Amino acid sequence: MASVDVPVALLGYGTVGSAVNRLLHESADDIERATGHRLRVVKALVRDPEKERAYQPDPEVLTTDFASIIEDKSIALVAEVMGGIEPTGGYVLDLLRAGKPVVSANKQLVAQKGAELFEAASTGGVQLRFEASVCAAIPVIKVLREALVVTNVHRVLGIVNGTTNFILTEMERGASYDEALAEAQSRGFAEADPTDDVSGADAAAKMAILATVAFGSRVTLADVDYEGIQGLEANDVEAAGDMGMTVRLVGAATLVDGRLDVRVQPALVDRQHPLAAVAGAFNAVMLQGDAIREITLEGPGAGGIETASAVVADMVSIIGTTGTGFLQNDACWRSVERLDPGKLRSPFYVRIEVEDRAGVLAHVALRLATHGVSIARLVQKQDNGSATLHIVTHEAPAGDVEAALEEISELEESKSPPAALPVISDRGVPGLGWA
Ligand code: NAP
Ligand code: HSE
Q1: Cα(77)–Cα(126) distance, rounded to whole angstroms?
Q2: Does residue 234 belong to any structural domain of this protein?
Q3: Which is the closest atom of ligand 1 to the Cα of 136?
Q4: Inter-axis angle of helices 15-26 and 28-35, nearest 10
Q5: C-alpha 387 to ligand 2 mean position (Å)
Q6: Predicted confidence (pLDDT) per residue in 304-318, tens digit
């Protein structure tokens, strides 16, 4: 059978874009064997065509002129690997409305403008795919939309940012925060501005996308409470180790009694929990639901060629499913209300700095007990007349822990505002033991 020539374009030719072109070149025979089509990058939008590229394209490919892409009727689809909200969002909307299918690796764009983008795709009668926007090489969107279509997923728990996971694991091995961040940047894991990585905004956008697809209800970046790794103290990491746990930046999307909660924050993860073993720029997503109980997907969560593999898979899938199939639709079919965050139950790690004298521990324990918060583990460290209490509580509603800590911070023996992080120890699925 004669192969079909498919000219495609890229918006962006940086870490991911150049890797997409490399993969399409180097795997052209494999793609043709599997699909009968040969995808060829004919245009790639950049800011500076003179810049040196990791994989040099043919001389006529790089352009600064978006019109040369949208107006070229031979271009069958476009991969957006440029990043940012504007002008990127405007370009993607124009392409979709003009009837060109789009693949995007841009989690901020999908998480912030998803509704508008899917409406434009529907107007243009084309597909918008976004696998690479979440966890790079891990095909989690495909699993949620296709393999788990009849599964009532009620919890998604994951490590969804490669840069921060890389930083945390390098710091455990003795590297400084700055050294580890610089290494993550040089390896192409970090965003162009790494603030999104370390502040938790990148992971929050990914959790918004995962929650939207898992629960079928629109969740945007604005619906996600998030906190990054900048507020972590070295003594939190040390105390976690002393108590048999490790610190990870964890995203959680949960459906409780028909309401949803989506958040990202550093958490103490029990060393026996599967998430504790996720190291370096790897990501992992645990999907929990009625029939499946639990499925964990783990793999590279960042990197040029890793992300490009998901972009290329989406491009090939569009070619194979154009004009057919439910995957071209928006994943949302209902509107689920948000859970009151104070009602979310978890064990917590609490750090409290107090004066080191008789009766103080009793005062602290009393405030916790008054709010029904029970202590499971306690480590006390002394330092120059003050004592730092590292406490792990039994499971309690977040609002009750917060109320107890507010009272503790008002005690005259209290030396600094207490801090609290969730602890992930139980699998959360009845009947599932460790590993
Ligand atoms: P990058 O290396 O900074 O590349 C961005 C590319 O877009 C560059 O080629 C740049 O042109 C071009 N560009 C940016 N703004 C432009 C504008 N206004 N007009 C024209 N061209 C413009 O970024 P990346 O790491 O490849 O990431 C791209 C996207 O993939 C982002 O949305 C990111 O979140 C996502 N992503 C990245 C990874 C990863 O591991 N890197 C993983 C998953 C998803 P110049 O080259 O001329 O500057
Ligand atoms: N900067 C992102 C990360 C890239 O580190 O996870 C993958 O989306």
Answers
A1: 10
A2: yes
A3: 43
A4: 60
A5: 38
A6: 999 999 999 999 999
